[in-house]
Write a structure and sequence with these properties.
CATH superfamily of the largest domain in chain A: Dihydrodipicolinate Reductase, domain 2
Number of domains of chain A: 3
Helix content of chain A: 25-40%
CATH topology of the largest domain in chain A: Dihydrodipicolinate Reductase, domain 2
Largest sheet of chain A: 12 strands, mixed
Distance between the termini of chain A: 51 Å
Oligomer: homodimer
Largest interface: A-B, 59 and 59 residues
Structural class of chain A: alpha/beta
Mean pLDDT of chain A: 95
Chain lengths: 431, 431
């Protein structure tokens, strides 16, 4: 029998129990052995009252009861946060226990320590639920695409922001109203700033890229920009005038051994499949050198999708535990000594959507394009709509590919001109 | 070391060799041991000339040289067809060798025999490349969604037909011209009838459904209708008047233990993500009871995508072989004694798009709707465009959900009327 301890029995933990009870027969057939959750730990005593009767005697409030139980082979860590979770996971390793976690912040921030320690103690840590909820994308990267050198990953990794952007685009809803609606429907947390600012996506692309490129890419090395400054106006211009949709993309690319990695609102061509990924859904678009382009889509969050991913990890890991091979080979093929070069955001070369707000006077366009040209930024398309009688007019440009630092210098210079009436807006374009 | 024999070294086989040479280091790290292709067999002698120098001495033309080599642990079967391939696979099992195959016809037609024999000899057979080319969907069903009861699968499983339907829709190209273009670009075989008629999709949905529902669903039990009768006119009506796209879908659903499984041209709402799967791409949309809706997208065919899937199987299987656990648990969790009920197509209940061609006379519409009503088919929407001066006019209807056999009886009765000027066209709608 494979004996499991569950630490942190909130929404996802209770979903895990539900799945195991409901599908016990098929789960045990897949593992090849009985699987039992023998201890459940949560700091909140009221959790015990919500447990199915059979689990009430397994409840405890001190996580050390789980970690010190010599019969437990596998610990499911669902406490969230990083400090306490790190302690739990590292202590589980020391006790020779394998771990399943959904904790993206923990993994992305302590990747090296976690995998080095797991190796040291000959145990495994699985983490399918940490990225993309119920979408088996960690497994796809790790196993399904194992024959490939990964060339690029484009991810819609955050359901809250994708929901907001979808509402803005499809229903012409301003940002604040879309955010309120997301909150009301449970797609946004009470404090959604980690989502809105792209921090959640940064954790997730850190994990995906660290697997794909075989070396830890720290969240602090990843440029992240949120959607808080995206206006309805820019979304509508992008769609109606240029055929682009705006998505918060997490992007990681291998550019000849130098890794380009960034999170920001991005315009993508409406023909691209990612633009059809709407509402709270997530998707990860991966290009491999053999498989070509593949995409994985599904619910990026929620009790049952996350529990689905946790239980699929539990099944796979339990099978390895029962066969006594768990830990003989690391789950993630990653080299703590491999150093990869991260390209600075200033060096990134993309196309830009730029919206200037200027006075309506002759010569403005030539002034702006002159400054852009001086900084090696050339213009692919320009739109200046006559809005007679207005003192501020928008001028919208799509640039050819240009280097980020050149664009930033040009925009700074333009924003300092007297003709500029408010800070210029830019959104990067992904081809 | 894990020693491999390759039987059938055509396009995909040569792709497999390329990947193994290119990514040997990372593959061996994942396996935990060296991996070597020690024998390559093909009936065509000229294949030897195309092999990289290091493999020339490993070439043979008699497959028994591979199967009788006691050092070989794993056989990659890429010969295609069913009779000879079946012999190769069963003999490999008898010799205690594990198998990786891309052969969808073989698997769907001999599922029971193959898995019973594999179990008997304690070996495994992997087959990721048999469905969806480079998309790791077999793995997703088998492992990533292992915690789920699968409720439904909707698949665009054939690249040729999806390419043709995309060209018809996006470029208003008639069927015959789109087929010629597909041939020219290599997206259709010289004899594309297995693709066009839905037979290829039938093999593939047989495999997916047999895994998902844990019991062999024979191709002969699956209703299949191709795209050969789809006219440009119906595609344009569907899109422009009703907001539907037409796709060749393979559908499998668990309706309370009775399995509904069918392949046919299908109208789906343009909001559905599958309608954005275009050209030669494939996608599989799976609903599980915990994960909810997930989708897997990519190249359904082609040398390198298929080779990517074969090599990912080789890596996983080699790891199990090296750890001496390959065969302890079956790869597919399937019960040869489980009998599931397949719903007859006549009992299926869906909405229909129906196009009648009638004379332009008063009373026609009431006559048609009367007959439909008599057969319990009610109308949700109706479109009759005035086309003055024409002797034949189209009347288009979208029905509410109705039973297939009722619709067929009604259409037969209507087609027998003097007012009907040609056979009524119908396309099922998936909500």
């Amino acid at each position: 029998m494979v004996k499991i301890g569950l630490i942190g029995c909130g929404t996802v933990g209770q979903g895990v129990l539900r799945i195991i009870e409901k599908h016990r027969a098929s789960i045990e057939k897949r593992v090849g052995a009985p699987v039992e959750i023998v201890k459940i730990c949560d700091v909140k005593r009221k959790v015990m009252d919500q447990l199915p009767a059979k689990y009430k005697n397994s409840f405890c409030r001190d996580y050390r009861e789980v970690l010190n139980d010599p019969e437990i082979d596998l610990v499911i860590e669902l406490v969230g946060g990083t400090d306490f979770a790190r302690e739990v996971v590292l202590e589980a390793f020391r006790q020779g226990k394998h771990v399943v976690t959904a904790n993206k912040a923990l993994l992305s921030q302590y990747w090296d320590e976690i995998f080095v320690q797991a190796r040291k103690f000959g145990v495994l840590i699985y983490f399918e639920a940490s990225v993309g909820g119920g979408i088996p994308v960690i497994q796809a990267l790790n196993d399904g695409l194992a024959a490939n050198k990964i060339e690029s990953i484009l991810g819609i990794l955050n359901g809250t922001t994708n929901y907001i952007l979808t509402k803005m685009s499809h229903e012409k809803m301003p940002f604040a109203k879309a955010l309120r609606l997301a909150r009301k429907l449970g797609f946004a947390e009470r404090n959604p700033s980690l989502d809105i600012k792209g921090i959640d996506s940064r954790h997730k692309i850190s994990i995906l890229a660290s697997i794909a490129f075989g070396s830890w890419i720290k969240p602090s090395e990843i440029y992240a920009e949120g959607i808080q400054k995206i206006s309805l106006q820019d979304i509508l211009y992008a769609e109606e005038e240029f055929g682009y949709a705006v998505k918060l993309l997490a992007i990681a690319k291998d550019d000849n051994g130098s890794i380009e990695i960034r999170v920001h609102p991005t315009m993508i061509n409406k023909e691209h499949l990612l633009t059809s990924v709407n509402n709270q859904f997530n998707a990860i678009y991966i290009r491999g050198d053999a498989a070509g382009e593949t995409m994985y889509y599904g619910q990026g969050a929620g009790q049952m999708p996350a529990a689905s991913a946790v239980v699929s990890d539990v099944i796979d890991l339990s099978r390895n535990i029962f066969n006594k091979i768990a830990g003989t080979i690391p789950y993630v093929h990653y080299d703590p000594y491999k150093k990869i070069k991260i390209k600075n955001i200033a060096e990134v070369i993309v196309k830009y959507y730029i919206r200037f707000t200027t006075v309506d006077k002759p010569g403005v366009l030539s002034k702006i394009s002159g400054i852009l040209g001086k900084h090696h930024v050339s213009i692919e398309a320009c739109l200046q709509k006559g809005q007679s009688g207005r003192r501020r007019v928008p001028i919208i440009m799509i640039t050819h590919k240009a280097k980020e630092k050149d664009v930033m210098r040009a925009l700074q210079e333009i924003d300092n001109l007297a003709i500029s009436k408010s800070k210029t807006v830019y959104i990067r374009i992904e081809e």
